[in-house]
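Supplementary Note 3. Input sequence used for the single-chain structure prediction.
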Amino acid sequence: MERMPAEKRKLTKKAVASSNAKHDAKALQRKQLDENISKAKIEVAKELHFVPNVLFLIVLICSGALAILSYRDMFGTGKVIFGEHDEALLQFTGSKKWFDNSKGWKSTAGGFSAVKKITTDENDMGGLFVRKMAGAAGLGFHLQKLVPLLFQRSDTHWGRGHFRPMLVTSALGDLAIAGFYISHGQVLKSDDAHFMGYAIAFALIFEAVIMLSFAVSSSSSIRKGTAGATSSPDFKVKSFPPGKGPKSVVCKIITRTFCIVTGAITLIAGRDFFFPGTELPFPPYDDIYLEWTGAFIHSPPPNTVEEQEYGLEAPLHIGDKFVSRLMALYVLVTCFQKFVSGFIVRLGPGNDGDKKCKIFWQSQAIGDALLLFTMRVFAQAALSASLDLRWHVMSLGYETFILGLYAFC
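The predicted structure, written as discrete structure tokens, is reproduced below.
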């Protein structure tokens, strides 16, 4: 009789131990399942937020190399950095005449210390101005692709389509610049500068194709982001500001600024690209600008005194015309991106249009600052040629201030 309770106690202990083991196993299973779900959510969040690595690397390589060339044109005009083919292109554009490295560390070496206060036929400050402005505009355009990817903001998500306007407009700009180089292939070949020109065009086309393909394929990521919007606190739709809706422009102040300042810049740059040497009734002293930058020499207007004076030697200045039109094209591409961010991009159903625009505005503020700095350095040299750049500097400075205010605040 005394053995029965002992056996019952053993059986009871075994049952309790078995129950505890099953409970621990279920708890461990639940913990592993929660960890797997948490990891899956983190992976999905990373996929929706970060730019794909392949796109990042391609843009870093292509735009990085082209940004180095533009940086050279702005801060070290005429310096050879990519070997004999780069030197051939510099010879074609006539940029090497401002590069002097004969005095060691005291040399100007094509930098801004080469800018003289007085313009003469010998130093040709107008020609140097065109080349440095081309470098500044080109650097601003390539930074438009590099800065948003290298310094991605925490509130800009790949899966929400925030990068698509930048990718599409940058790809179109790449194709336009590549087409410009290809269209001058025969002219570049005559001076053995075609290899560098075609290399630049290939890098631009390859980058454009990659950016467009990722922009198109990102639609599936956008659907994933929409599906997960209800569960992710980062993707919750904000309420619209008073008086605004999905079809409203992001910032009317910036839109009006683009209409005034960028509109005037587009008019001048469009003339320099499509009708070089043609004088406009606006702005004032446009004829002095064309003479100072050498447009009357490489592109004299027909049936004018300039054609009689420079018509025969104009073909000899094809390199000057090339770099002048390249500067205008870079400026036109950046103006195109400004108009897209000011007029085309709207708040949208998710009220995230401001995030798309800030991707533009941050880089555009930097690009405008580079142009503003270049114009300010050349202001005294231009004034010696009776060209007053004060209104140009003030207008561009105002736009730079407005862009910086809304982009970084």
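Residues 3-49 form the longest helix (47 residues). The two ends are 87 Å apart (CA to CA).
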